[in-house]
Amino acid sequence: MSKLSNVAYTVGSLFFLVSCSLSIFYGYKIVTHHLPKEESAVKKYRYHLILVPEELDNEYWKLVEKGAKKAAEKYSVQLEYAGPKQANIDDHVKTIEMSAASKVDGIITQGLSDEQFTPLINRVVAKGIPVITVDTDTSNSKRLAYIGTDNYYSGFLAGKALIADTKGNANVAIITGSFYANHMQQRVKGFQDAVKAEKRIHIIAVEESEISRVKAAEKANQILQDHPEVNAFFGTSALDGIEIAQVVEKYKKQNQIYIIGFDTLPETLKLIRKGTIKATVVQEPFQMGYGAVKMMIDLIEGKKVSPIVHTDTRILRISDLSVNNGRMGEHE
Ligand code: BGC
Questions:
Q1: Which of 101, 194, 242, 254 has the least CB density, counted as fewest CB within 10 Å?
Q2: With a 6 A CB cut-off, is 243 part of the ligand 1 pocket?
């Protein structure tokens, strides 16, 4: 080893030892996920919260994150955003378990299914770590509060919109994010209940996209092959409607097939402007994220929090776009 690298090695080791002792002295929590180093070392945060979505890179979840970050900045809270890169239930569960083990001050996540999430949430809460569900609720669990869409009602609204927007026989195919997730089941159920009494509306098929664009497109394609009588689609999660629309455009059937989707991602709004998607169910992901962080702080500080907060949901059509310019879901 040269003299120079010897010196570098000694300085490096010294630096390492000093930072370790400082961390122990100040009792900094070692977290499982990565925060910018300078940020966590320099800034003093009141609490350390984690938001665990089912899919990190999903644009819908980025809006939830954006809202949560905004509230975190305002209230000097350290917020981590961690979870599966692509929807994966095992990774989702693992991230929650790791966050609990690293003793965060609060966990904000979806209550995707009663089977996997209720016992897990109950275990975490029993350890003294508060859990708030966002976007999807497990009402049977011991989560302290839920903030998000009333998912049954949002599906019901979609059914009513389809009734209002179509005439004659409507043969509907539903592509849902997942068969097991609570919110997806509720959206489908709400839709079915809304159209139940309409003799001219028939639900021909219900398929699952697994929150994957490729799968949503595959399913839409298959449905059109197997059921050429289908003339309406309902996509119950953010990416389903977009992919249904691509397939319908491929077959040049946009004038014959009615599509109602979910959420107001830029691609969806573009397809509404084009006329391929006729309507979409608006959710407020930014508000969910913002509100969840605020509620968590209140809970930690012993303030009273309403156990169920429903964010706004409504139907959006092309006629609504000219008025508000399509900037959806980013306001507090
Ligand atoms: C749902 C989210 C889901 C997303 C998938 C949204 O409509 O509310 O739970 O992760 O779609 O793209």
A1: 101
A2: no
